[in-house]
Amino acid sequence: MKQTPRPTPKTRTQKTPIATRRNHARTEREQDPVQVFCRVRPLCSEELESCVEVISDSVVQLVPPINSVAFKSGHKNGTQHVFKHVFGPTSSQEEIFHKLGMPLVVDMLQGKNGLLFSYGITNGGKTFTVSGDHDNPGILPRALDVIFNSIEGVQAKKYVFKPDRVNGFDVQSEVDAHAEEEFNRPKQLTAKARMHQAEFGDVIRPLMSEDCREVIDDDSCYSVFVSYIEIYNNYIYDLLEELPVDPIKPKPPQSKGLREDSSHNMYVSGVTEVEVQSTAEAYEQLLKGMGKCCHL
After folding, report:
1. Residue 192 pLDDT class (50, 70, 90 cuts)
2. Three-point CA angle 101, 103, 104, nearest 5°
3. Residues 280/200, Cβ–Cβ less than 8 Å
4. Residue 161 pairs with which residues in a beta bridge?
5. Were both Cys, which of 73, 80, 134, 236 would link to 256 (CB 3.0–4.6 Å)?
6. pTM value?
7. Interatomic CA distance for residues 192 and 293, integer angstroms
């Protein structure tokens, strides 16, 4: 997200943050920058027995199933594992976001980097936790919603900031930005595009009543850019890159390279960066990338 000073401050009405809780959470993250959370999903209809027991809000116990080799070999006692926080089978998407997703969003709006890494077995609930569904939005759409709610009124016009492809941005005048926006504006929405817009509305509609936002620097203006890459077997693929399609002899996607910028930050060289101005636009890029992802 690009942040730059604004010449004219604006007065905005904000919800009062709970400063004590925010400061406590920030102090915890500074002391322990890598935090590991655990979510225990409910059993599916065909699953008869659970081997995971939630002992407390930070401890789970793993017990071998009765019919397992471990149990029959005499390993009947469970092993306990400690996490920063444990979310039980009844935990809601909203609870999980506010506990582990919201602190990352708050830090990002203050100019700090953040990473959320979802890890688990197949059908463990990773996609549901991160993306969710139409009725239960996950961490990602909720995070996007907070970002755009928070920067409302101080968001730069589209195309004012342009990625320079080397982990930086160029700034152009609003006149040039408007001309570029008009040039890139679609002349007419196709039936497929209108259908997709309706789908995006269904995803973010449950969030509209929450109006969750954070206090930001009103003397700055903001632009949001998104990228979507897939890392597989040490290869990096750009899932938002528009490539010409050869129906006769299709070419496989080319791997991108990692580079280091002048500030010694690592970035993916030449990756597509799409400017988005709403939660729906960002989610559209997410679905576009997911359609190209080969190894989910």
Report:
1. low
2. 70
3. yes
4. 171
5. 236
6. 0.79
7. 20
